[in-house]
Amino acid sequence: MYKCALILAAGQGKRIKSDLPKVLHKVCGKEMVNHVIDTLRKGNVEDINVIVGKGAELVKENTKARNVSYSLQEEQLGTGHAVKCAIDFLKNKKGTVAVFNGDAPLIKEETIEELFKAHKESGNSATILTSILDDASGYGRIIRNENEVLKIVEHKDCNEEELKVREINSGMYCFEIESLVECLDNLSNDNSQGEYYITDVIGMMKEKNEKVGALVINYEETLGVNSRVQLAEVEAILRKRINNKHLENGVTIIDPNTTYIGIDVEIGQDTIIYPGNVLEGNTVIGKNCLLYPNSRINNSIIGEDVEIQSSVILESEVGNNTTVGPFAYIRPQSVIGKNVRIGDFVEIKKSTIGNNTKVSHLTYVGDAEVGEGCNFGCGTVTVNYDGKNKNKTIIGNNSFIGCNTNLISPVTVEDNTYIAAGSTITNDVKSGELAVARAKQRNIEGWVDKKGLIKKK
Ligand code: UD1
Ligand code: CA
Is 155 a catalytic residue? Predict the structure, then answer.
């Protein structure tokens, strides 16, 4: 069945006190509006129109990978006015449209499917997702007569009786497009905020004797974010939900309260995660990994049986059985092979490191292609920048790079070579060669005594 939706994302978000449009604030690493888009898609809603206004270009920029269309609300005159701005999207359509606020990221895909189903089965003109909150302040209240929904009254327009109502409007609805469009023309802004409210449509439909209804769901899914306090609350709920999913899939998380996993991260069974890990973006972690404390891994693919400790890995790949850290920094576009050792205070930038290679301590490898089975001594540096250009270092298989070697790029070190410790390598090294590039040692006999430098007791 074809399904379409509008997402309201044009508001300023005054209460969040930010230069960034509110819907671009992130929850568990993803912008709120993108949570809503992705969940709608998972709930089989294909055709999505996002209404943009405040920071329109930024919102478009941050959602464009998701293949949605846009409507522009130049002036933010309220949620009802926002829906009206999407009239071009609605006018040639028949049937049902979902309307969702862009600031409520906790809704689940199953609930979206239930909403469409309940709406269709009931023959309603509008079906609202609602919930019961202990503290309903700030939300629109669902006003009922016996069991029937009569209207929604915004918090600021409630009388004393209405303020006591704890059933709230989530800002998520299904509407029959034709009845919705009819009502849009008759909205008024005669209310305490002087805005055109989409919520008024409910009362208008009811007065026309059309059926409206509500689906009451778990309060957590309906929470909207207006302030940074609510942003942190929603973050904590989603974090717990994500961590529970991984726990249920067979991942050990020693302290879920201090483990931060993005919503799109995948983790294999029997991986153990210690406190203080931050896993972001589209990161994939294989089975049986040990993530010791305090790493940040962003948009990276980590194999199986990998051990990582106190390190930062960005947009890179790490092969099976490899160990990283403590205190390693793997920068974007690096590909680390299998059974590799990237040790303490090692930085790898835009380089490939072949299987079984060891880069154990205090080393910088940038813009390099390193083969298999190599050993880097402590303090090796690829000198990849000549002040103008970044140049490449190529190292073959089974090469031994002595401690404190400088590899002045562009330079190639072939297979099966040795470089003496302390060398500064400016010329290529051919297969089978030992390269020594340092001043010869000279010892001057009796020098200390002659200078009178022997310390007296
Ligand atoms: C809205 C509902 C309220 C509901 C609550 C749920 C109305 C009038 N009120 O209130 O009943 O309980 O959500 O969280 O709808 N927006 C626009 N253009 C505008 C104004 C807002 O696109 O002119 C967008 C905002 O970007 C936001 C969404 O609509 O994503 C909701 O706006 P907001 O101002 O947060 O509405 P609430 O006061 O929370
Ligand atoms: Ca809101």
Answer: no
